[in-house]
Amino acid sequence: MPTPESPLQIGPHRVQPPVVLAPMAGITNAPFRTLCRDFAEGDGWGSGGRPPKGAAGGGKGLFVSEMITTRALVERNDKTMQLITFDASERPRSIQLYGVDPATVGKAVRMIAEEDLADHIDLNFGCPVPKVTRKGGGSALPYKRNLLRAILREAVSGAGDLPVTMKMRKGIDDDHLTYLDAGRIAVEEGVTAIALHGRTAAQHYGGTADWDAIARLKEHVTEIPVLGNGDIWSAEDALRMVRETGCDGVVVGRGCLGRPWLFADLVTAFEGRTDDCVRPTLREVADVMVRHATLLGEWLGDESRGVVDFRKHVAWYLKGFAVGSEMRKRLAITSSLEELRAGLDELDLDQPWPGGADGPRGRTSGNNRVVLPDGWLKDPYDCAGVGEDAELDTSGG
Asked: Which of 127, 247, 256, 383 is the catalytic position?
């Protein structure tokens, strides 16, 4: 198991504990990364102060941006340029890129390297949503082995000294598994680390993540770190994944929705203090909710827009607490910080952490047909028909 004495190494970046915040569309923007990072640094329950300058670079996890499309980045789309704007305290700055055209991916990576836009680049080969897979991107792409190789080669070549990692799934479905081939190609092309979500694209987020696949990938790829992803709802889950699979670190996605303090638990758990789990009262949760909405408003430059963007987080934060359905609905349509705070103040804020509050959150759909380009599965090596026109033009998933 990784320990403080043997942290995860991503290129020059020492990641301790070996924990990565997974990129999530519409979620892992700068405000949410700030919350998660502050909890990891021990400042999450404070009055909003940031860690001392440089503290985030000490390695309390790695916090990755939302998915950035390479075409939108190269074209300097306004929304995309905002999404890649990092807080001054963020180190290392981590960007996840999505692309299907090797030339466009190469241009985007060189832009990041030459303009010092980030310190680490992750490549998305795991997204299962139809608008991505129907273009041959995300979790569909590793099926085309030569295309995967070409993209990785362009990215690693263009990145210079920046480490390039990749996140992927097991494959398209159980009949079209790609993760072992993709892992070997990644090693051969100079990728620094691989993260595997133990589900196929067809599973989306349903069923149970296959941790055995993570173990098999770790046995198959010994040259670089292998990180595991899927069904980490608590710090104990993270420790168990490392024990059972031998992976070098974990990637946490839906487990931190409405639970940014999970990163505080992960820090203490990897330091051997598994009895220090955070169990906030509803009052403490409400304070975090208001801070989250405030940060979103500051980031978007408009308080109302920030509170509206925060609405999707309300149910995740309140899961398990005794809050009536009408109040939940009311809190999920607030439009100002004053309205949000007033609604929260009407609750019984002395409620302790509820039993059963952990567990699945976010998307749980599964067993979906994967939408693919026509003829995609005919030949795992032929890349005809995939080009610049398949690139998405907006970022954020």
From this structure: 127
